[in-house]
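Collaboration report, partner site 2.

Our partner group contributed sequences for two proteins of shared interest, and the home lab folded both. The records are reproduced in the order in which they were received, starting with the first partner submission.
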Amino acid sequence: MRKLFVVLFIAVLGCAVSSAQTVTGAHSTVQVADLTLVDWSASQPWTTILGHPNRANRNAVQIKLSEQKELLFSVSLECGLYTQTLVKSSGGTKDTSSAQATVQVRVLVDGNTATPAFPGPVTFCERFQQLSATLQGIIQNLACFVDSDNDPSTPPVFDPTAPGCVLTLEEIELVLRTLNANAFFFILPDVGVGTHNIEVQARIATLGSAQLGSWDAKALIGKGAVVVENHRLAKGDNIVLQP
């Protein structure tokens, strides 16, 4: 634990002059990025945000094992969500818009997408936003008021279906934008001898629907860090994933 504190402190200092700084010790590797890793974006496939698929790249995160061990990964990220829903309604007709944004994260060792680190893809942040409204609309002319009984002593009755009645759609809009930091532990057992390349990948998924209104959804991945440590489980111990 004392050695880990020292490594982290050096990495943070290095971030003052670099977007990503990687420091490797005898039993651990740390990379810290101090800039936005993925700017506000709609849906996109899995993208490497920490580490690099090319081992020779300066941002590659690698750890060397002299014997078979388990690898433990701690991933911390700033996770931002943006959702916007707009509804339009008139004549008492209900209108609904929805928007959803999700950020998922996984850890790969040596580019193996078939067996990512347990427990596989993890949702770091997600939001589903739905807005509905039933509005009468903005009355534009007097034709909407009908004197059905021709009695001057009783007021006209509002009728949105009257001939010549003009109603302008009323609008309601809801916009939410949040940013918070989240962390999760991943593990990969029985990693063999050699130098292994680590990638932290993320993907953004957005979804929405609208009738008369509109929707928008985006997500952002801000500053981040990954800590890789090697461990040896006691003989007979197993990694158990709860259903």
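Second partner submission, folded after the first:
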Amino acid sequence: MAGFHIEHFGCRAARADGEAIAGHLQALAERQPFAADIVVVNTCSVTAEADRVARAFIRRAHRRNPAARIVVTGCYAQRAPQELAGLPGVAAVVGNSHKALVPEIVFNLAHGSVTNPPPAFLSVASLLSAGTAHNVPVWADDKFAHSFLEDLQLAPGVQTRPNLKIQEGCSNRCTFCVIPLTRGPSRSLPRAVVLRHVEEFVAFGGKELVLSGINLGRWGRDLSSGRGRESLAGLVRDIFTQTALPRLRLSSIEPMDWDSDLIELLCEFGPQRLARHAHLPLQSGCDAVLRRMHRRYRPWHYAEKVSALISAAGPDLTLGADVMVGFPGESDREFDETIAFLRKLPFGYLHQFPFSPRPGTPGWALHQTSPVPPAAVEERMAVLRAVAAEKTLAHRGRFVGRNLAAITLHTPEAVAALGRTTALSENFLPINLDGHFPANQLLDVSVTGSHSDGSLSGFPSH
């Protein structure tokens, strides 16, 4: 029996895609990446660095395991399939438009053919959209008709807290973002399918599930039902009222999509069942930069949403954000505005990254005319990293001496060797517990210390 390995790059939604593909391939034995017969590389393309890392992994996998057949999928495969098809060892390239076919394509490779599937699968030979490149078959188009992996089976396994991707694509068209090109317009998984997956997860003993999407807050806007317009808030309420899921966590949601109904759920169901954790992409704290980015909010709108979230969830809410440095034309004054804005708000963590021009986006043209010098970007990144570290340490340090609800995770060997177990608090704080505990256990934890790396230590309180 052929062995396979899936290597994930990118966001939670991409990880959910990879987990779904793995679920379909459980009949094949999993192996380490450099011993597998087939290696699936689930790529990201949000930055040039993401592209480089994916290419480097493909080259390394082929160099160390020349016999492996490499199947490349994800955003990079959608954006530049011919480029990837030219890399040594690549046996097939499958864009996001045809991602649902990856399990079939891998199965066929394992049985010696790409285009002649066994009876258990639908034929994909007629769906070969972009022909071949370098004699490598490529599946990619701009229709995205085969992009949703719906028939996954969720269970706490390798991922204690798996991602259930309920929304795909984005229609916002921010000037810097390539996602509308690599994942298409916003599409939603039907309510009944979502509820079925949640019920299955609970039946398998799952304790915490993460709802994810490319633009999660827009779930349901392309659906209609007898109840009127579907909404994420309505779906979350149904999860709590129609299933016995112990805890739900919401991944990244755009600031303008945190409406009053969704915010109210934090007050009604948190912290017992809805995690007090909100990630609101910010990108910039400067109004002028946000306008050039074509973001649909201003700094004061963002601050108002944060205030409403804290009012609903309380001060123990962990607030996270993405912040971009070096967007074309960003001046020292504009960057200083962002830093001042960040200092005013109670962030628990920040994901910081430099602007990366993506071909096909308006930001690519802006970068040609108004680039920020690399030295200035590096200097600003250093400032931002320092602010982020300061925010994280201050936020997590507040919980020393407190009790928090947490879930145990799969503990790395190095941590287990020290007699500890890794856990994650309900409000998204990493904790190393004294003692050995199995994964997927909900515990009340007494936090005893905070460390320079931002982690917390503690022990079960009973």
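Feedback sent to the partner group on the second submission included the following. Residues 63 and 440 are 37 Å apart (CA to CA). The mean pLDDT is 88.
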